[in-house]
Write a structure and sequence with these properties.
2 domains; 60s Ribosomal Protein L30, Chain: A; 11 helices; alpha+beta; Phosphoribosyl-aminoimidazole Synthetase, Chain A, domain 2; homodimer; six-stranded mixed beta sheet
Chain lengths: 338, 338
C-alpha cells in the first residue's frame, strides 16, 4: 500500500501544470493562479470524514462546523493569503440528518466565516451510507508574487512557529479516554480538548506575513511539527535543526501528558495544531515579533535551516538537546497508514 | 426530515451574499465572482459517494474517474462557461487503496481533463472507514455578464434539450439487474450502461451558448428533466409546458424499457443524463441549430415557457399529449429521500 505522500506524488506527476495563468499546482497548502495584473487567487480543499477526522460522540456539531472551515482557512493563511469565499460539500446519513440539529453545525461554520469576512458561495449535499462526509473549500487572494510557498527556506534562516504546540493531540487523547466538554476537571483539560475540537486558524497573522513579505517559507502545522518541517525542507532542498529547550509546548500538555518525553512527542509529532510554521532571515525578527504582537500572537524561534547534508537523499531534521545534535526520526500523521 | 432542497434553502438563506466581487452565490449550477474587468470566474463542486452515486461492483475505476470530472465539467457548461482548473478530494478505504489500481481512476480522470484542457491543480486525500468518497471541484471562466443562469426564462420562449434522454436511468436499471460492460448482448444495452457510467458533458456547446448569448436560462439535466425544468421555472418565476410527442427519448430506452410509459418516465424523471436544458427566444432557433451542429450535437425543442399561473405557489410543469394539457407531477432525484 502506498503512503499518502507517495500516492499524492503519483497524482502530482500526472497533473498538467502548464495551464494558462496557473502559477502553482499540487504540492503546497493551496494552489495559485493569476487573477489579473497584480493579484493572485489561492484555493485549497480539505476532506473531513467521520471516524477518521472526528467522532460524533465527542464533537458537538457547532465545533465540527467551526473546524470544517478552520482547517481550510488555515491553508490560505499558510500561503500568506486572505480568505474570501468558501464552498462546502456535505454527505449526511439519513438517520443523522433526521436526528441531529444541523443548524448547530452552521452556527459554528458561519460564526467563523463572519469573523473573517468569508462568504459561503456554493457546495453540494448528498446522502451518505453511514458516515458524515465534509469537503471544505476556501478561496483566497494575495498580491502578485506575495504568496509564501514551502520552497523558499534557505540555509542560515531561522525557523519560527506561532503559539504553542501539542494541545490538539493531548485533547484528542483526553477525548479518547472518555473526557468530554464541558468538563468539571481542571481548566487545562478543557483547554486541550478545545484546541482539538475548535482550533483557531491564524488568519490575520498569515495574511500579514504575506503582505509584509517577512517569511521565506510558510505552512501550517497539521500533520505534526517535525513532519511539516520536513515538507518545507523537502521542497526547499535543505535540512533543519530544532532546539529542544525552546520548543513551545502548550501548558496543558506539560501538565497533562504525564512525562516530559510524551509532552515533547505531542508537541513535535501530534497533528492538527493549525499553528503557522515559517522560516525567515534572522534580521527580520523584530519586525516578525511586532507583526505577531499586533495579532495578539506569540512566536517562538525554534531552530535553524541548514544546507542539505546529503543531496541524494531526503531532508533531515536534527534536534539539539543538552549540547548534542541527533537526527530526529520523523513521525507524523499519514492518513493511509494511521 | 427535510428534503435536500429545503436543506439547501436553509443554508442559502444564512450564507453571506454581499461579499466583495461576488456575483452569484448558492443556488445555480455554479457560483460566480468578478475576476477582473471583463471576466468572471465560475466554480462548482460535486460529491460522489460509494453506494449512493456509484457501486464498485458495476463501475470500472476508469469510468469512475471520468464521471467524477464529467459531472463538474457539466456544471460549468451549464453556466455557459469554459472549464480551466480542477481540484479532487479522495477518501479511500485502506482495503480498496491496496486492492484496486487507482491509476485506472486517474487514466479516466486525466483523459477527460486533457480533452478539454483542464488542469488538476489541487485536492486532498484521506483514509475513509469503508466507502470511497470523491469531491470534484471545477473552476471555469466566462466573459463578464455572459454566464447563463436558471433565472432568465421568459414567457413565450422555447425550451430545448441537447441529445437524447433517459439512457442513464435505463443503464442504471440494467446494472442493477446484473448486466455489465462489456456485454455480449445487443449494442443498445452497452449504449445505455455507458451513458450511465461514462457520461459525456456538453462542454463545448455550453461554452458556445454562453459566448454567443443564445440562451436565456440554462442548466444541466442531473436530477431528471421535469425536476430540473422546475428549477428553471422556480428561479425564473414562470411555468412551462412540455410536448409529449417530440421528447427525445434515447433509442436504447425505447428498445429496452419494455413499455412506452416506462420509457417516457426514464426520459422525464431519470437523472444523470448530463444533457443541457435551456430556454431561448424562438427566433434564435436557426443560430442554435448551427451552434449545436458545430459541436456535432442535436437539439430538440421540447416545449414552451408560460406565465406563472399561480404566483402564490411553486412552478408548474404541464404536458401536452394527444391534444390535452395535463399537470405533470414532478418526481426526480432527492438525495435525502431516495
Amino acid at each position: 500500500m502506498p503512503s499518502e505522500f507517495s500516492f499524492i506524488n503519483q497524482i502530482r506527476q500526472r497533473a498538467t501544470t502548464g495551464a494558462n495563468n496557473l502559477i502553482l499546482g499540487i504540492g503546497d497548502d493551496a494552489a495559485i493562479w493569476r487573477e489579473h495584473e497584480g493579484r493572485e487567487r489561492l484555493i485549497s480543499t480539505d476532506l473531513l470524514i467521520e471516524d477518521v477526522h472526528f467522532k460524533l460522540d465527542y464533537t458537538s456539531l457547532a465545533c465540527l462546523g467551526h473546524k470544517a472551515l478552520a482547517v481550510s482557512l488555515s491553508d490560505i493563511a499558510a500561503m500568506g493569503g486572505r480568505p474570501e469565499f468558501a464552498l462546502l460539500s456535505l454527505g449526511l446519513p439519513k438517520s443523522k440528518l433526521a436526528d441531529l440539529n444541523w443548524q448547530d453545525f452552521f452556527d459554528g461554520y458561519f460564526s467563523l466565516a463572519q469573523k473573517y469576512g468569508v462568504a459561503l458561495i456554493g457546495g453540494d449535499t448528498s446522502a451518505s451510507p453511514d458516515k458524515v462526509v465534509i469537503d471544505s473549500v476556501v478561496i483566497g487572494t494575495c498580491a502578485s508574487g506575495k504568496a509564501i510557498r514551502r520552497s523558499g527556506a534557505k540555509m542560515g534562516e531561522a525557523i519560527y512557529v506561532t503559539g504553542r504546540l501539542g494541545a490538539s493531540a493531548m485533547g484528542l487523547e483526553l477525548l479518547q479516554r472518555g473526557e468530554r466538554l464541558p468538563t468539571q476537571s481542571p481548566d487545562k483539560k478543557a483547554e486541550a480538548i478545545r484546541a482539538h475540537l475548535q482550533p483557531e486558524p491564524r488568519v490575520k497573522f498569515g495574511e500579514n506575513l504575506g503582505t509584509l513579505g517577512l517569511a521565506t517559507a510558510l505552512m501550517d502545522v497539521s500533520d505534526g511539527l517535525a513532519q511539516d518541517l520536513s515538507h518545507i525542507c523537502e521542497e526547499s532542498g535543505v535540512d533543519a535543526v530544532l532546539e529542544y529547550d525552546v520548543l513551545p509546548i502548550a501548558p496543558s500538555v506539560r501538565e497533562l501528558a504525564g512525562t516530559i518525553d510524551k509532552a515533547f512527542s505531542f508537541a513535535i509529532s501530534g497533528g492538527e495544531d493549525y499553528e503557522l510554521l515559517f522560516t525567515a532571515n534572522p534580521e527580520a525578527e523584530a519586525a516578525l515579533k511586532k507583526c505577531a504582537s499586533e495579532c495578539a500572537l506569540e512566536i517562538t524561534r525554534i531552530g535553524e535551516i541548514m544546507a542539505r547534508q546529503n543531496p541524494q537523499e531526503g531532508p533531515r531534521i536534527f534536534l539539539r538537546r543538552n549540547g548534542r545534535v541527533d537526527l530526529l526520526s520523523i513521525t507524523g500523521y499519514d492518513h493511509f497508514r494511521a
